[in-house]
Amino acid sequence: MSKVDLSVKIGSLTLRNPIMLASGTVGYGNEMAEFTDLNKLGAIVTKSLSLKPRKGNPPQRIVETPAGMLNAIGLANVGVEVFLKEKIPFLKQFDVPIICNIAASTIDEYVECTRILDTEETIKAFEINVSCPNVKEGGLSFGNDLNSVAKITEKVRAVTVKPIIIKLSPNVSYIAEFAKAAKENGADAVSAINTLVGAAFNIFTRKPKINNVTGGLSGPAIKPIAICKLFEKSKKIKNTINGLGGINELEELNGFKVGGSSAVQIGTLNFIDPSAPGKIVTQLEEYCSKNGIEKISSLIASYQL
């Protein structure tokens, strides 16, 4: 098999391949390491981190759907200080870029989390999850307000030179405008899409299957929407797009890349087959070799209309 260049770039960060593990689906990497060689991957995106530890929502917090899952974990996490003390030492064992996902309730918290984590050399980039409630604005999601996305990006950019990725919400009318706002205020990339809002009811008890009533829908059910949103953004912005939303196999991954994604994130699939990401890396190299593709970057936004 001929050597294929699978590398992609996110700002100043070069990934050996475009396969990333999505935030919230692999914890802090230690469980996943039992099933997949982390050194084969492009990057690991950590579980969302907040300034202080969060217990999250009470169960039931996860419900399987016919084509994916609903979750309302509530951003449960150990907090940045415990993460640096107890989780980073394990991650340092591996030769794989660590990207910290940050969730917050205020703009100041986004900034402070980034500032604290920026001191750790092992952390190579930040993914800013703007699909969080703004407590100062009555709970409206930051990601649904264009000015908030712009301001968060600008403020976080001011405290780090490492790549910044803004994880966008799909629950907006025109996602390209949010991607543009992120880019214009200093983002190196955007991740899209985050989960869609969904709900499910038990027809016998007539109660919600999730204690929080609504949750984030992920998995194959949202894939066509994710690709559509990706295509929408790729026509408007030129900065890196990390595509995610229901990728289950190589063909779907390449569909994201043709639609405009530089890198991709594997999420819900990790719950089904935690060894899948490593397998997909091998399959991707074989696909490129067999089809005469010397650089995986040549597939990005290669759609023809």
Summed over residues and divided by their number, the pLDDT gives a mean of 94
Share of helix among residues? 25-40%
Q: How are the strands of the largest sheet arranged?
A: 3-4-7-8-9-10-15-16
Major β-sheet annotation: 8 strands, parallel, barrel
Topology order in helix (H) and strand (E) letters: EEEEEEHEHEHEHEEEEEHEHEHH
SS field, number of helical segments = 8
Computed CA radius of gyration, to the nearest angstrom: 18 Å
The count of strands amounts to 16
Shape: globular
Beta strand %: 15-25%
Structural class by SSE content: alpha/beta
First-last Cα distance: 32 Å
Q: pLDDT under 50 segments (min length 5)?
A: none
Question: What keywords describe this structure?
Answer:
globular, 305 residues, alpha/beta, 20% strand, 28% helix, eight-stranded parallel beta barrel, 16 strands
Short description:
The chain has 305 residues and is an alpha/beta fold. Helix content is 28%, strand content 20%.
